[in-house]
Amino acid sequence: MSQTAVVIGSQWGDEGKGKITNYLSEKADVVVRYQGGDNAGHTICFNNTTYKLHLIPSGIFYPKTMNILGNGMVINPLNLVNEINELKALGFKCDNLYISDRAHVIFEYHLILDELNENKLGNNKIGTTKKGIGPAYTDKVARIGLRMADFVADDFPKVFTEKLKQKNDDIINLGGKALEIEKTVLKYQEVALILKPYVTDTILLLNEAHANGKKILFEGAQGALLDIDFGTYPYVTSSNPSSGGVAIGSGLGLTKIDEVLGIVKAYTTRVGEGPFPTELNNELGNTIREIAHEYGTTTKRPRRIGWFDGVVVRYSAMINGLTGISLMLLDVLTGFDELKICVNYTLDGKVVKTIPARLSDYSRCIPNYITLPGWKESIKDVKTFTELPLNARKYIETIEEVVGVPVVMFSVGPDKLQTIIRKEIF
Fold first, then answer.
1. Are strands 4-9 and 199-200 parallel, antiparallel or unpaired?
2. Euclidean distance between CA atoms 210 and 4, whole angstroms
3. How confident is the model at residue 51 (pLDDT cuts 50, 70, 90)?
4. The pTM is what?
5. Active site residues
6. Residue-wise pLDDT tens digits, 219-277
7. DSSP code at position 125
8. C-alpha 300: how far from its chain's center?
9. Is residue 186 within 8 Å of 214, Cβ to Cβ?
């Protein structure tokens, strides 16, 4: 058994990480978010109830589990307080939540600048969620951001007032309306008082937990193909959802990571702009979207649908060092006569086995498929791999062959109990 495990979205996000992190967090002592912000959403179903989380880790439902918002995150404090209050209203105390004092803070001006910048790009827009993520990470890299330690400090009002004056100039220059300084400062002061008890040195907490033999689960947001370094740039997020972001975003060293579990949909989806070689712009794609309710947890935008892209997942396996795959939403593919898996691309007459760096090249890639027979039998009640219909087993085995990583668990329905484990992580 492993002591530490990372859950990685291995495509363009929305793979079903919430369900698996919730399943594993029941066994974990610590659950850590290490990057991103509330631009991502996890939908979790258990005990006949659906929960939607945007910032708080999935272990929040278990009182004995420590939940950490790591230093690699950018956190909107207004939305975090709302999420805490919603969970408290449902009976979860949230006493097991810890916020890194080194995490950067998203303020209202980040959201305004996000939208103004996106509008300025026009037809070249990135497809951002307009949650202020990019501008907050920009401030971080430019060394002008404010961290949680600053947010809950006594001199925050003075520091924030000066920051607001600077940001108002940027907003006005982009054609926006300046924020009212006194009112804005007061609003954030009140929120800072609420969050102050949660803010601490999570790096020390995490390393002490590891030294004491605690089981630690790292929960990524978005997906590897949205990674700022490895993704389909520039249509990417502003952080590192890939496994390399774990050490940077949490403060636990790389030598202490045991397992990297890639969460993979049984087909492919994408939200926002950018190339998508296996996209199904037809009735079949629409059918899959409606069966699976493929609409963004945070944005409600319809997700783009495509066949399983083995090139994408194989690339993801390389950059993340995947030790296993959790195949999600296999039940959605029930009822189709045939299914396709992309094994490589053709680019300008040549076979390509990985993702080109340039989008102009990637957008010209033509997918090459193998076709497999589908299955008609319902799989929602199966409990083991051998109970699956022959063609469903063959589909999983083919994915393992194409990607080169074993499928260690798979999902046959939205409930946590509809998760079939072939290899235990914890």
1. unpaired
2. 8
3. confident
4. 0.92
5. 14, 42
6. 988 899 999 999 999 989 999 999 999 999 999 999 999 999 999 999 999 987 889 99
7. -
8. 15
9. no
